[in-house]
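INFO  loader      accepted 1 record
INFO  loader      residues=492
INFO  predictor   begin
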Amino acid sequence: MITVQAKLIFESYEDRQKTLELMRRWSSCMRFAYKRLLEGFDRNSLKRELQGIFDLNSRYVDDAIMKAKAVLESCKQRGEDPRKAIFGGRPLFEKLKKRHINGKPYKKLKIEWQEKRKGNLYSRGDRSKKGNLNTRIVVNKSGTFLRINIGDRKYVFARLSAGYKKDKDRRQILQEIAALGVPYSVELKLKNGNVYAYFSVEELFPAIEITRENGAIGIDTNAYPNHMAWVEVDRSGQFISYGKIPMPELESGTSDRREYYRWQYAHEIVKIAKEKRKAIVIERLNIKDKGTRGDFSGRKSRRIRHFFSYRSLLYKIRILAKREGIEVIEVNPAYTSVIGMLKFAPQFMISKDIASAYVIARRGLGKKERIPANYMELLSRLDTSSLEELKEYVRKEVKNANLKKRQIKEIEYVMSKIQSPGSEPGRLFAPLGGTSAISCSESYNLWRVLRVAVVTPLSPDRVLRDMSVLKRILVSGQVGGPEIGASSCFLG
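INFO  predictor   done
INFO  writer      dumping C-alpha cells
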C-alpha cells in the first residue's frame, strides 16, 4: 500500500464546519456500532438502523461498522477486554481523569483528546466506481481538490496541499491516482485544528524479471554490531562473493532519522541485487521480547534491538525489490547461525555472520545442509564414559560467571536432552546411514549438540569468534588436546 498525506484547505468557513460536523457524526456512528457489536448485533441490522440515527449514507455507515469491527478484533487478538476500549486514546484519558494539570495545559490535552475521539472519517475505495464515491480526488485547471460528500447529494471541495517541499511530488502522485481510476481509501483526521487527508492505494508492482534462476543474494541482519551481511551464490548454491554494510546510524537518533537510513540501506541491497541480477533471500523473523532470561537480557542489548528494527528494514527491502521486479524469498532462520559457524565459516575463512548469510542464500534455493562426515564421526566416538565426562565438564563451566546467560541456557538444554543409552553400551550417535542410539524425551537438532560438544570445550569462557580452529576438524576429524584442561576423549 502507498499512503500519501495532504492537508485540506477549505474555500470557506462554512465548508470547513460542514466537514467537521460530518466527521463528528461518523465518529459517533463508529463508537455506537462498536457498542452494538459487543451486544451481538449483526452488520445488516446495524446498517439500516445507523443510517437514520446519524444521517449518513449507506457507504459511510458500512465503513464505520468495518472500522468498529477492526477495533474489536484487535482487542481480542491482544488479549484485552473489548468492553474497556477508550476511543480517543487511553493515555490522554488517564491524564485528564487525574486532573493533575490545570489551566491552559489541561485545556490543550482536552482538545487533543476530543480531536482524536471526534475528528475521524474513513471512506473505502470502490473499483466499480473507479476510485472513491464519497471522497473523490478531482483535478481541474484550478488545482487538485478533494470532493467530500456531506449528504443529500451535496458536496464540499477542499484544496489538497502536501507541504512546500514535497507538494509537487505528492500532488503528482494524487493526480496519477485519480487518472488511473484505481480504488483508493481516504481517511480524514483532525489535528491541531487542521484537517488532514490520508490517501491509501494498492501499489501495482511490475512483473518479476530477476528470479532465483540466476542465483540469489542472502541477507543476514545483526543488531550487535550493527551491520548487514550479504553473500552472492549462483543457481547451484556455490559461493561467489560477499560483503558487509555497516549501519551505525541505527544505534541511536530520532525516529525520522533512523527511518531515513533504513531506506538508504534497503536501497543499497536492492542495488546490489539488481546489478548482479540475483533474487534476494531474507529471514522470516518473529521478533519477541524474551525478557531478562532470553537472548535480549541486557539493557544495552534491548536498546540496540529497539533502535535497529529488523522487521522494518526487511520490509523496506521487500518493497523496493518488488518495485524493481526482483524476486524476494523468505526462509526460516532456524539454525542458520549455528550451521554457518560450524560448517562454512572454517571452510571459507569468513566470519559467522557472512557464513549465516550464505546458509540463508542456499536455503532460499532449496538447498539442505548436512552435518559434515568428520563431525558425525566425532560425535559417533562419544561413548558413555566420555559423555559423562562431557556433562561433568559442562556443569562446572556453567557455574563460571564468564559464561553468558544465553550460552548457559543453551548448554543446559542440550545436556538435559542427551541421556545414556542404558544397557546398550557403546556409541550415542550412530554415523550417517546407521541406526540412531540417541535416547531423548523429545526431538532436537544435532547441530545444537555439535555446537556444545565442539565449541564449548574450545572456548568455554567467551564467545568463539575465530572459527578457523574448526577447519582441522572438518579436514582430518582430529583436534589437539585443549589447553583448558578438558578431556580430549570427546574432542577426537
